[in-house]
């Protein structure tokens, strides 16, 4: 079953694979007290509101070190460089469940 930017695949062993393509435009607050020698960390966290940890697993489709791409012509602030990234995972307990 396919819908725009979504795919549901059922394998022979009954495993369901549901994928969804997302494009995220995120903002990063900057504190410029040490400009021009400052550095900024811009965390981007995502998760599931509707599914529990036993129902959904987020997994990079390729090496996490190369999972973030910044197009040279897509950056509005060309004087800044992406120095690196880290990938981490965790489980957060919410008031609505696990």
TrEMBL record:
GO MF term set = chloride channel activity; extracellular ligand-gated monoatomic ion channel activity; GABA-A receptor activity
Question: What membrane topology does the annotation report for this chain?
Answer: Multi-pass membrane protein
Main localization, broad class: membrane
Task: Kindly list the GO CC terms recorded for this protein.
Answer: chloride channel complex; plasma membrane
Entry keyword set: Chloride, Chloride channel, Disulfide bond, Ion channel, Ion transport, Membrane, Receptor, Transport
- Name the PROSITE patterns for this protein: NEUROTR_ION_CHANNEL
Which SUPFAM superfamilies does the UniProt entry name for this protein?
Nicotinic receptor ligand binding domain-like
Which cellular compartments is it found in?
Cell membrane
The record's annotation in Gene3D superfamilies points to: Neurotransmitter-gated ion-channel ligand-binding domain
Residues forming the Neurotransmitter-gated ion-channel ligand-binding domain are 2-88
The name on file for this protein is Gamma-aminobutyric acid receptor subunit alpha-1
> Which source organism?
Crotalus adamanteus (Eastern diamondback rattlesnake)
